[in-house]
């Protein structure tokens, strides 16, 4: 009988030991980190975390189900519970698409085991205390409104493998200390405020580094020995000169040929692409830039309205030319002299439906004859509202038979709201006519000599 009891007791002890073993998601979050999460929530105005439950038990308020690889909304806190005494530590914090404001919380440094940090819609400067997060392996802080120069914190993040700072609001240059990141495998930096800085050396390692450097103003070449570069450059065509002189151009950007009043707008329905040039008899356009993190098709470079438009000349706003980086139109073979330029806009992609999707912001700059005539233009604010038209007029002087109009995304606004691939400049129609004109009453404040 004793022989039977002993194995039975041994089996019970084995089960008890198994139950006591630390399993991921079954431990208790360290009390200091629980307190820190409460401070972070308060600093960000975040009210949807259920503080009555342990953050590391994968309760719904602390973890967003993974429905796709790059969700627009992600409220996930990931823990590692394999530490002794069943203690869990927070290793990943993702705050994305949650309408959060303010600055990056200083209490993040109270999560010493943090390896991944993702956040957006924040402002201010990065706190120096972030240098204490020495275990960081992944840092994604794109689509923010940070201020000041890009911080020189890289010497503290020697384990960093992925760094994403796109449309962050930071000023250049990139600190030279980035070369210390010997474990870096992916670097995404775009649209630094200002420019003219030399791209830093990333060290002598021959490792594969995926670089995404779209829309930067770096001087000099990308250092040799770096593989996997995805760096879309602007395409600048050289226009041919003809003996014929035109005195007007009307383009329905991204749309079909249309007649509005007595003006015939030519079709502009070429699908374009990441680096393309389209040419008609006396005008053409170049489009540059590739949308990040989506499988780009020709349809991504033309926006189509999905609602009923009630503004005047609605035919011009049904579709629009769209690009993630730059669109440049050339009216060529023009007779030299003064011209009236009218630019038609309507925001037909971002919606006004009181949802997360309505937080999309399209902000870009406008150049005429290589001169900046309108900075940080936001169609929705200028209209005001979506599906509403706004027109900007300029006086332009043509001296070499070519009028150049460029729309350039300067790294501000959102890059994934309401969906990926909707940011960048958008133009509905262009009208160019020769002659001396006076200011239209409805265009007050928008008339400029170029």
From TrEMBL:
<dbReference type="InterPro" id="IPR032675">
    <property type="entry name" value="LRR_dom_sf"/>
</dbReference>
<feature type="domain" description="Malectin">
    <location>
        <begin position="249"/>
        <end position="430"/>
    </location>
</feature>
<keyword id="KW-0067">ATP-binding</keyword>
<dbReference type="Pfam" id="PF11721">
    <property type="entry name" value="Malectin"/>
</dbReference>
<dbReference type="InterPro" id="IPR051824">
    <property type="entry name" value="LRR_Rcpt-Like_S/T_Kinase"/>
</dbReference>
<keyword id="KW-0547">Nucleotide-binding</keyword>
<keyword id="KW-0418">Kinase</keyword>
<dbReference type="GO" id="GO:0004674">
    <property type="term" value="F:protein serine/threonine kinase activity"/>
</dbReference>
<keyword id="KW-0808">Transferase</keyword>
<keyword id="KW-0723">Serine/threonine-protein kinase</keyword>
<dbReference type="GO" id="GO:0016020">
    <property type="term" value="C:membrane"/>
</dbReference>
<feature type="signal peptide">
    <location>
        <begin position="1"/>
        <end position="27"/>
    </location>
</feature>
<protein>
    <recommendedName>
        <fullName>non-specific serine/threonine protein kinase</fullName>
        <ecNumber>2.7.11.1</ecNumber>
    </recommendedName>
</protein>
<keyword id="KW-0325">Glycoprotein</keyword>
<keyword id="KW-0597">Phosphoprotein</keyword>
<dbReference type="Pfam" id="PF00560">
    <property type="entry name" value="LRR_1"/>
</dbReference>
<dbReference type="InterPro" id="IPR021720">
    <property type="entry name" value="Malectin_dom"/>
</dbReference>
<dbReference type="InterPro" id="IPR001611">
    <property type="entry name" value="Leu-rich_rpt"/>
</dbReference>
<keyword id="KW-0675">Receptor</keyword>
<dbReference type="GO" id="GO:0005524">
    <property type="term" value="F:ATP binding"/>
</dbReference>
<keyword id="KW-0732">Signal</keyword>
């Amino acid at each position: 009988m004793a022989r039977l009891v002993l194995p039975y007791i041994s089996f019970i002890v084995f089960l008890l030991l198994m139950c006591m073993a630390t399993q991921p998601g079954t431990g208790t979050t360290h009390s200091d980190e629980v307190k820190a999460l409460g401070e972070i929530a308060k600093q960000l105005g975040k009210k949807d975390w259920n503080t009555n439950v342990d953050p590391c038990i994968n309760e719904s308020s602390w973890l967003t189900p993974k429905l796709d690889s790059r969700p627009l909304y992600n409220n996930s806190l990931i823990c590692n519970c394999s530490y002794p005494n069943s203690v869990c530590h927070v290793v990943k914090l993702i705050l994305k698409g949650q309408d959060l404001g303010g600055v990056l919380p200083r209490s993040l440094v109270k999560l010493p085991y943090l390896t991944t940090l993702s956040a957006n819609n924040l402002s201010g400067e990065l706190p120096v205390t972030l240098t204490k997060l020495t275990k960081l392996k992944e840092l994604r802080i794109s689509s923010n409104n940070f201020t000041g120069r890009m911080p020189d914190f890289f010497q503290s993040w020697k384990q960093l493998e992925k760094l994403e700072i796109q449309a962050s609001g930071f000023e250049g240059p990139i600190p030279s200390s980035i070369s210390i990141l010997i474990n870096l495998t992916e670097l995404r930096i775009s649209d630094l405020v200002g420019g003219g800085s030399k791209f830093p050396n990333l060290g002598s390692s021959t490792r594969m580094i995926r670089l995404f450097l779209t829309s930067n103003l770096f001087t000099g070449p990308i250092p040799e020995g770096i593989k996997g570069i995805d760096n879309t450059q602007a395409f600048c065509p050289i226009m041919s000169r003809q003996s014929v002189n035109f005195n007007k151009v009307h383009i329905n950007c991204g749309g079909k040929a249309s007649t509005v009043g007595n003006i015939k707008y030519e079709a502009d329905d070429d699908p374009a692409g990441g680096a393309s040039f389209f040419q008609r008899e006396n005008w053409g356009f170049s489009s540059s830039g590739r949308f990040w993190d989506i499988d780009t098709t020709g349809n991504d470079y033309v926006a189509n309205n999905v609602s009923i438009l009630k503004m005047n000349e609605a035919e011009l706003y049904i579709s629009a030319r769209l690009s993630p980086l730059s669109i440049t139109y050339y009216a060529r073979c023009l007779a030299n002299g003064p011209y009236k330029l009218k630019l038609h806009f309507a925001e037909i992609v971002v919606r006004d439906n009181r949802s997360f999707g309505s937080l999309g912001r399209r902000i870009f700059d406008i150049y005429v004859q290589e001169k900046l005539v309108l900075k940080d233009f936001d169609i929705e604010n200028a209209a005001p509202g979506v599906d509403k038209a706004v027109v900007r007029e300029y006086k332009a002087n043509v001296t070499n038979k070519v009028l150049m109009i460029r729309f350039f995304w300067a790294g501000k606004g959102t890059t994934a709201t309401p969906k990926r691939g909707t940011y960048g400049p958008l133009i509905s129609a262009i009208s160019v006519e020769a002659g001396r004109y006076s200011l239209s009453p409805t265009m007050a404040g928008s008339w400029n000599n170029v």
